[in-house]
Write a structure and sequence with these properties.
Length: 198
C-alpha cells in the first residue's frame, strides 16, 4: 500500500512539474468546454468532426502575446478524431504539446505565458481550421457577427478571410492561403502565424 501511495505521489509531482493542464469534459465531450470570446459571448468548442480538412504536417509557428514572442516549428495534426499541436525546437526536441480529442484537453508548455488556457488555443485553431459554416453558426448563436470571404478580389489569389465582430468592432481577423494562416485577436492583443501546407 505504501508503494502505491509513493507511486501516485510521484506521478502527481511529475504532472505538476510539467505544468500540464487537463480538462475533463465528461459524457458530453466538447460541449462542456467553453471560452469567453468577449465579456458577454461564450463559445462552446466544436467537436473534432467539424474540421474542414485533414492536416498532418510540420508548420513554422510564430506567436505574439503583447510584448512576448514565441517562434518555433510545430507538428500540426487535425482530423475528425483529434487536434494535436506539438511545438519543437531547432533540434526537433518537443517544447510543448496540445491535445484535444473531444473528451479531454491536455496542454503543457513553458513557452506560453502562464495565463494562457488550453481551451482558448483550441478555440483559436478551430476558428482557423474548422468549417466556416459551423464556426459562423456557433458564434452568431452567442451574439457575434461573422464575415467570411473567399478569393481576394484585389490580388485574385486564392485565400480566405474570416472576420469576427462584436457589434461593429472587428475583434478577430484571420487570413488563410495554401501556405500561410495569420490570426489576430485585436481584443486580447495577441496573434499567431502558421506557415506550411494547408
Amino acid at each position: 500500500m505504501k508503494k502505491l501511495f509513493f507511486l501516485l505521489g510521484a506521478i502527481c509531482n511529475l504532472l505538476i512539474a510539467c505544468r500540464s493542464t487537463a480538462i475533463a469534459t465528461g459524457e458530453n465531450g466538447a460541449n462542456l468546454n467553453t471560452v469567453a470570446v468577449t465579456e458577454h459571448a461564450t463559445y462552446t468548442l466544436l467537436p473534432t468532426t467539424a474540421v474542414e480538412k485533414k492536416i498532418d504536417t510540420v508548420q513554422h509557428f510564430k506567436a505574439q502575446f503583447g510584448k512576448k514572442e514565441i517562434e518555433s516549428d510545430c507538428l500540426l495534426i487535425a482530423d475528425e478524431e483529434k487536434l494535436i499541436m506539438t511545438i519543437m525546437n531547432n533540434f526537433g526536441t518537443t517544447m510543448g504539446e496540445l491535445n484535444y480529442n473531444n473528451d479531454l484537453i491536455v496542454f503543457n508548455s513553458e513557452l506560453f505565458p502562464k495565463g494562457v488556457k488550453a481551451a482558448y488555443i483550441v478555440a483559436d485553431i478551430q476558428f482557423c481550421l474548422y468549417r466556416a459554416d459551423l464556426i459562423q453558426a456557433a458564434l452568431e448563436k452567442v451574439g457575434l457577427r461573422c464575415e467570411f470571404s473567399g478569393t481576394n478580389a484585389t490580388t485574385g489569389t486564392e485565400e480566405e478571410i474570416r472576420r469576427i465582430y462584436d457589434g461593429e468592432k472587428e475583434i478577430i481577423h484571420i487570413e488563410k492561403s495554401s501556405g500561410k494562416i495569420t490570426y489576430t485577436n485585436f481584443l486580447r492583443d495577441y496573434a499567431y502565424t502558421l506557415q506550411g501546407e494547408f
